[in-house]
Design goal:
- This protein is mainly beta and 348 residues long.
- It has 3 domains: 50-60 and 261-342, conserved putative lor/sdh protein from methanococcus maripaludis s2 fold (Beta Barrel), CATH 2.40.420.20; 64-71 and 165-257, no CATH class; 74-161, Beta Barrel (OB fold (Dihydrolipoamide Acetyltransferase, E2P)), CATH 2.40.50.100.
- Helix content is 9%, strand content 42%.
- The protein contains 2 helices and 23 strands.
- It has helices at 2-29, 173-177; strands spanning 50-52, 54-70, 74-77, 82-87, 94-95, 100-108, 126-133, 138-143, 150-151, 156-161, 165-170, 186-190, 197-205, 235-239, 251-268, 273-276, 278-284, 290-300, 304-309, 316-318, 326-327, 332-334, 340-342.
- The strands form 5 sheets. It has a 6-stranded antiparallel barrel.
Amino acid sequence: MGIARTWVFPILRLLLVALVAAALIKLAFFPDRPADAAPAQPTGAIVEPRTVAALGTITNDVVIKATVTADPAVTMKSTAAGTVNKIFIAEGASVAEGDIVFNVKVPIERDPADSVDAEGKAKPAVFRYVDVTAPAAGTLSSLAVIAGQDVTIGAAAGTVAPPTFSVSGTLEPSQQYRLLNRPTEASVTITGGPAAFTCGDLRITTPLAGSTGSESAASGGTSTGGTGSAGSGTTATCTVPGDVTVFSGLAAEMTLAGGRAEGVLLVPTTSVRGAAQSGTVWVSSPDGTTAERAVALGLTDGTQVQITEGLAEGEEILEFAPGAMAPVDDGCTVYPDGSMYCQSVAAS
């Protein structure tokens, strides 16, 4: 055992160290393959990704976040100047449109020749009575007059809160391009509420410059008096059906159908410079070069866009056109003008 410790183990260690040193020298100075002639020169090549225009189906659904709101109260105005004679309906009561809430006693002016009797005494005053009715069905939420009070024509006498609700959401400028053909209804899903339902009487409105407290129709510029306020951007508002139970303040998701097309030519939105109506693509040539070409655009779903003119099925184009819409994280898309549209993703 003493001989092994003295001679055998040290010799084995020396042999092992010599083998490791020889292997390192071999790897460092004697490689198995010849060295590159020009190691500083790159050997790879950058190839721009390409895609092919193909037929398909596209659905242009614009999804926006929305909120349920109670429809605004309607003001009840006095229709005559005189004195409140009698109040027929108390504040807080339910009313139907046209119900008489109170009436106004209006003096009738006599002809001077008919103002005195045969004995020369002034004849008693005569009056007519004008009814003031509820302007809408709902609850008489406020009544601002009392019996014996003098009122003028057009004076606010109370308000009626209708039992109806609306769903409203804000449209981004880029989303309006996708709704050039305005729908008349929307599909609404209430968060934590009933199944999706059709919400009719859809109104897409934009406040006019300088307007206050009202909305103006984007197409005609007429005031709608709907929910929302001036300066809040373009708003989509629809009426909740009476058989759907909702509450003011609920969060909702509104889907606006901007159109559907089948068997049309489609390319990725990233292949097109331009987002609506017209744009350009870069078409590949057989020799590998590309040439810019103008195209006409149709529907888009934020990922694909319909080509209506300027490109044929099977033609190869650059997948990422210079200056085209650039996809970003979280399902959002940045447009050439700097605006951003984020596609909503339904929870699984």
